[in-house]
Design goal:
heterodimer, A: about 500 residues, MetI-like fold, Jelly Rolls, six-stranded antiparallel sheet, five-stranded antiparallel sheet, 11 strands, about 45% helix, B: mainly alpha, 11 helices
Chain lengths: ~500, ~280
Amino acid sequence: MSKNKTQTKIGAPTFWEQYRRKPLGMVGLAIVSLYVFVAIFAPYLTPYTPKEILLADRIAAPAWFRSILPKFADAPSSVRISLGSQEWTVSEAVGGGLAPAESDDSPLSVIQFEPFVRDEVVSEEEIDVLEVEEYPKEPEQGVVTLSYTLPYNYSAPKTFGLTFNYWIEAPSDSKTELEFVIETPEGKRYSLWGKSASGQLANQPARIDSRDLSLKQRLGMTIFDDPAPRIFSSRGDYSLLLIARTIPGEEPTRVYISDPEFYIPGTVHGLLGADHMGADLWTQLVYGTRISLSIGLSAAAISVAVGTAVGIISGYLGGVVDEFIMRIVDVLMAIPDLPILIILGALLGKSVWNIVLLISAFAWMGTARLVRSQTLSLRERVFVEAAKASGASDAYVMIIHILPNVLPLVFAGMVLRIPSAILTEAALSFLGLGDPRVATWGRMLHNARGFGAFTTLAWWWLVPPGLAITFLSLAFVFIGNTVNEILNPRYRERS
Amino acid sequence: MFTPEAKAELRRQFGLDDPPLVQYVKYIGSLAKFDLGLSFSTRRPVINELKERLPNTMVLFLSSFVLTTMIGISVGVYTASKRGTFADSFVTGAGLFAYAVPSFWIQLLLLMLFGYYIPILPIHGTMSAPPPDGFFLQLLDRIHHLILPAGSNVVIAFGSWALYTRNTMLEALGQDYIVTARAKGLHEKTVLRHHALRSVLPPIVTLIFSALPGMVAGAVITETIFSWHGVGKYLLDAVMQQDYPAAQGAFYLIALAVVTCNLAADVVYGIVDPRIRVGEGGAK
């Protein structure tokens, strides 16, 4: 709206015609457009959301480091396999097998064992003997091994894990044993997990984590050993084996394995790596654009609107009102803004809206002074006198006659206010006073400092958010200066 | 959680039984006496904790301030004489950069570079624990700890001073009296230092003093990043722990410093530019 007004006022060359001849202004506009594009299309620019964690190992490096840094030359990226019934192959089946899946991509695998059929005539005595398992016709142990071949051609990972749920339907006289084994390409077998049960077993989770102390003990390692690098020390085809053994009872035994997921967190990940929670840094950067842009724009708009209103009222009405408002402005300007924002931010609670309000509350004074001084000269002009003489009210004169004339000044001032709002928001988030629910650039830097970017020398975590802030701020400075040059040549030195 | 007696005792201890107005008058009265109450977390008088930290903050602040302005003005004067060279465009870039770049980010990068990648500087604190023996070694140790925080402040801020000095110097160098001085055959250095710089120093000094409050406020971030045992870090820690008396006390001290700086700016403005004192409008 303001643009149209200024266009008609300037006359011959329109605002845009002048603007597009300024290279710096155009560069600024291009950068801001790029950021706006990223902010709008954030969900399409990344496959993840900022809330997704455990996408990779903690503080994973960017994936493209592989091709430029020898240290990361064959670092693993995340391996995550959902082992549904289709993924398994049955490598050994005695007395049972894998039941046909309900659907092609069923996450549930059912291992079924045939029941043990006794002789038809069994005396009481014989049964007693059978129960202590000394009966000559002992039921034969059934074994079903599900295997999955995992090609692994990277250097050793730091950790790995497997999770699944399982339950067993079996008669009470049966005994079932489950075991999870990884077989290395050299044929070495590591039994990582085991469970034996008599009869039924209700649904329960199995969590295998290479960092678990119990796992290390099971493998005969000390607490200082690390199973993951040992097991995945060579390259080639690893076999993940899920072995079920059963001594069948009179009813069929069924072992249900649901949603098994094998996971090797990558030490390299995505465009920019991952943070301490394994969340994608590129995603955080992309979504951070939204917050920074909206906080910068809205804080600048609010503070400039308030400043303009206060400035016009103060300058136009003059007298006691002016004196009073200007003293308030003096006091507010004397308050150190960052410390007061820290205190109020902590008191009011951490939310994006609070930050916008706080930044605006301590940023309108400069605009108010500028607009007031402009209004002081405007109100003495003839057209204002004419309006007053024809009976216009104060409010009418202020809105219809004064406001349009200060708008060019205010518009440039607003653009130049955006970078400082963005920087202030980043500083508050960095200090831990930002909204904890949203990903912002300041928060990325806060996390980087607090959660080990320094000790791991993860400069790729530290550099991108700062660059993003710098380029966005620079772009708005370019635009603001260009607008000022065109609209307010006399005020160029200000702001 | 508390017995009624304990509650009453706590209320009495913190003076919460009085009506709000009385409380407020008491509060203002004790502020004037620098009686800032007891810290919730340490149960020590806040003023004592601040007294411990104030010297550290002053050392960091003054060293950053002096170094920044000296380096900034020297670089500005130098580049003004080398217009159009690489040094000149470097300063222009640095000035713009100083406006757009988040200062805490530069500090983080410097901390990572000199504290971790090339670990030659201490990464936190004001001195080693335990401190080395002997006064001289302790002094060196403190300076060693000061390099990164103060140096990073210089890196962040010198650009804008240099740019401002350069611009005002260029304006001054176009004046007639400079042409006269050159025509007299004076050495270019003399012209720069004794003719041009002298005339642009007043506005620069004024600007320096008016920027002081911002630098005081920036202490919070600098001290937090480098774990500097000062007032700014104390403020943030207090806020994070909801230790209100401590936060109030630290904020009071910072606000006092800012007001003092503002006052100093007005006074200095009068000293360096006599026209202000006399109250007559000069030609320039």
